[in-house]
Amino acid sequence: MANQDDPYARGPDEQLSLDGASVPFWLLHLFAVAAFFFPFRWSNVAAFAVAYCLGTFGIMAGYHRYFSHRSFKTGRVFQFVLAALGSLTSQKGVLWWSGHHRNHHKYSDTPLDIHSPKRGFFWSHALWFLSKKYVATSESQQREFAKYPELAFLNDNWAIGPVVLCATMLALGGLPWLFWGGFLAIVAMWHATFTVNSLAHVWGTRRYETTDTSRNNPLLALITFGEGWHNNHHHYQSSARNGFFWWEVDVTFYVLKALSWVGVVWDLRVPPAWVLEGAAGPTRQGEAAAVAEEEEEAAGVAKTG
Ligand SMILES: [Zn+2]
Ligand SMILES: [Zn+2]
């Protein structure tokens, strides 16, 4: 119940909701465990790996670095491909996801941050979207991409993504692939992504004295394809590269870089020298400048292509 003295206390509409909407979430966990009752086969692991790589790249490169932060540019077709890949992970629609993520950066770890771990660890991990309060897409936070009808359609009908993934796995590899490449992969991708909101704000080191609790964590960076460098990211969020140095493994950036060589994406933003050189760089000014620049570009962000 809301506590008047604690600004981080959750209201009555911010409690775990066990109505119909959250049933698929729990059911999929049961199905994921059931995957281990099939006889072990490497082909099952391969199906899992393919789904995990495609979906996680869609979330990290697409939902996060492109739609939330516009850290690189691409054409309308590949923009849709990124949104479609992200939707395979069953993390709701791309506009819903990126709108709420922008809110997280705007209010990081203040009482207005929807999923700060200061409101509870499991709340930041998964409970926040299992409450009734944050079901709607945050339109004020996500204007420029809502104008594309194909993105708006996918946002409203995001369940097509996981259904297509599961149906494809069933068709190609029968029940073992449905459970490994479908259910288990989706649940694994969920929790990998959710650790960025939970563990990456409590476990790891802090290179930059940001005003939030973000951390850098190499283990999380491996499983999230680079998002574990979350303190770097909060310090300079408009970068397409979250591993700022060569030893900070950032698979999402490597793939984006390779795609830039063949012209699929371009104008990848990287951290400027003042960010790399000093922990005490002008974070807020740098962010303000980057945001102003982004807003100028908002109208023409995606060319038809
Ligand atoms: Zn964060
Ligand atoms: Zn972010």
Strand order of the largest sheet: 1-2
Low-confidence stretches: 299-305
Radius of gyration: 19 Å
Question: What global shape is seen?
Answer: globular
Number of helical stretches of at least 4 residues: 12
Count of the separate structural domains:
1
Strand element count? 2
User: Roughly what fraction of the amino acids lie in strands?
Assistant: under 5%
Task: Classify the secondary structure makeup into a structural class.
Answer: mainly alpha
Helical amount: 40-55%
Separation of the first and last Cα atoms: 50 Å
Which small compounds were modeled alongside the protein? zinc ion
Largest sheet properties: 2 strands, antiparallel
Q: What is the residue-mean pLDDT, rounded to a whole number?
A: 88
The helix-strand sequence is HHEHHHHHHHHEHH
